[in-house]
Amino acid sequence: MHISAKVEYAVRALLVLTAADGGPLSGVALSQAQELPPKFLDGILAELRRSHIIVSQRGAEGGYRLARDASAITLADIIRAIDGPLAAVRGEHPEVTSYGGAAEHLQDVWIAVRATLRSVLETTTLADVVAGKLPPHVKKLVADPDSWVSR
Known about the structure:
Elements: H1 5-19, H2 27-34, H3 38-50, E1 54-57, E2 63-66, H4 75-83, H5 106-121, H6 126-131, H7 136-143
Antiparallel strand pairs: 1-2
Helix pairs in contact: 1-2, 1-3, 1-4, 2-3
């Protein structure tokens, strides 16, 4: 899985909002807190607002805040808001692919990849990450030394 800079920046900014416990925080404050490019972050924040993950408030006391509790916003929600489906094959959902011959069962692999991503990303919330209390099955994956080896 490729995690784009847009997704990484979105998650980092949302983690700052989560830690702010209600905000609101300005785009500049979010940018400075994680050393993110301000103009790029502005576009990301607009996408998050359109996806109803954050809301904005105008005025001197304005800024951004989470649209719902951090325990109700999963990493999958954020990825989908910024980059679309968790697992796509040539831009399509894995269930619409079909292959013949030696590749006949390749669709099953793509479905399994999506299911594995969902098992982590749909169960891990912003609140979990800020608190450092990841779901048990995610902790188990992180504790496996093989998970830390690049290939």
